[in-house]
Amino acid sequence: MKLYLLAMYLLLAACSNLPPAIEDPPLYDLSYNEAIQNIARYKEAPVRWGGTVIDVENEQNFSLIQVLYYPLNSYGRPQLDNPNGGRFVIKSPEFLDPAVYTKNSEITVAGRLKGDVERAVGKKYLRLPMISATVIHLWPDYAPNYYGYGSFGYGYPYGYPYYGYYGYYPFYRGGFFGPYW
Length: 181
Prior knowledge:
Blueprint: H1 2-14, H2 20-23, H3 32-37, E1 46-58, E2 63-70, E3 86-92, E4 106-121, E5 124-138
Parallel strand pairs: 3-5
Antiparallel strand pairs: 1-2, 1-4, 2-3, 4-5
């Protein structure tokens, strides 16, 4: 029985395709609001933050991504239905292609808080927290799934088209799908 449970655990653990640093938050999950209150106090603290990409800048030896912060769900994906908290900058030693890291794509980063950096937003200069990235995960776009549960492959959300107030397919005739004339 124990061997069976171990095999099931390993099988389910293998189904996750997220990096462990993205899927599992740090021991003390430092929030964005705590960090911007006193960046010097939390310097070198491990963080796992995410949001949507605003801009990508590539320098000779590193890349900078400016991100609009959103809180993360339990899997580490940004929750775009919540209000954003501000901006932060990701510093990566790798080249990050702006064609891949496009504007408004969802991103999660795990790394260390290195301090802050001054960035221009319009004509205003802001001090933004900067993270030295160890892992960057770019999330795939959500696509509506009309072929999933209950759709039977016809492209409708519940397997049949909605025909207005009088019911669903085939037609509403008196009782529940009948009597037929």
